[in-house]
Amino acid sequence: MLISYNQNYEKIAMGLLSYIADFKAVDRLLDEMESYIHSEDKRLYLWKDKETENIVGIIGLEYNDVVVLVRHLAINPSFRNEGIVYKTLDKLQSHFPDHAINGTLETAPLIAKWAQKMNETDNSGNQP
C-alpha cells in the first residue's frame, strides 16, 4: 500500500533512503529530506507491506502537470525480489493517472522494465 510521507515516518524514510549510495553521508541525506519536505513539486511516498504491516520501501518524486519524475526508489533488502517496485509504480500511476512516469539515470532502468511489463500485460488482454 502506498502512503504519503509525514513527519511520523522520518526515521523510517531516512533509513530507507540510506540504502541509496548517494545518501550514505548523513549531511547529504538530511539535505535531500529537507528538499522533499519543503518543495511544492516534490513528494515522498512509503510502501507498507500488507502482510507484515511494515514500511519496506520509499519512492521520491518530482512532478509537474504532465510528468512524474521518479528520483529515488529504495526497498528494504529483506523484501527485494518480491515485485514491490512494480506494485509501487502501479500505485503511483493510479495516483497520477494523467501523468507520464519517467526516471532519472538511476531509476530509468526500473521504470523501463515496469513499463515493458505493463505493455506486455496490456497486449495479452489481462489487467495489470
Automatic annotation (TrEMBL):
<dbReference type="GO" id="GO:0016747">
    <property type="term" value="F:acyltransferase activity, transferring groups other than amino-acyl groups"/>
</dbReference>
<feature type="domain" description="N-acetyltransferase">
    <location>
        <begin position="31"/>
        <end position="107"/>
    </location>
</feature>
<protein>
    <submittedName>
        <fullName>N-acetyltransferase</fullName>
    </submittedName>
</protein>
<dbReference type="Pfam" id="PF00583">
    <property type="entry name" value="Acetyltransf_1"/>
</dbReference>
<dbReference type="InterPro" id="IPR000182">
    <property type="entry name" value="GNAT_dom"/>
</dbReference>
<dbReference type="InterPro" id="IPR016181">
    <property type="entry name" value="Acyl_CoA_acyltransferase"/>
</dbReference>
<keyword id="KW-0808">Transferase</keyword>
